[in-house]
Amino acid sequence: MEQNVKIFMQDNCTKAEAERFIKQGSEVVNVVGWEQYAKDNDQRNEDGEYITLDDLREERDISFVKFEGQEYILLYVL
Question: Which among 36, 37, 38, 33 has a CA at the least distance from the CA of 51?
Fold first, then answer.
């Protein structure tokens, strides 16, 4: 969990905010594993197709951050 806190902090969260987001169910997903995550969690668009990484990159409310040479997607639960 500590690594996820640090990753959320890359999106300008304080440590306390990051911990709170994680407790509320927010997730960190490595970009490399998005396709499998989408299938495992049945993440589909309005047409019933799995949401692609390109779809996510077009969304304004999805955060992408880099941490230790890897790119991550932050899925916030507010």
Answer: 38
Q: How far is CA 57 from CA 53, 60, 65, 72, in A?
A: 6, 8, 12, 12
Place 60 in a pLDDT band, splitting at 50, 70 and 90: confident
Strand partners, 50: 44
Q: Residues 69, 31, 29, 64: is their CA dihedral positive or negative?
A: positive
| Predicted TM-score of the model (pTM) | 0.91
Could you give the count of Cα atoms lying within 13 Å of 59 in the half-sphere of its Cβ? 14
pLDDT > 70: percent of the chain: 100
Q: What residue ranges in the chain does DSSP mark as E strands? A: 27-30, 63-67, 70-75
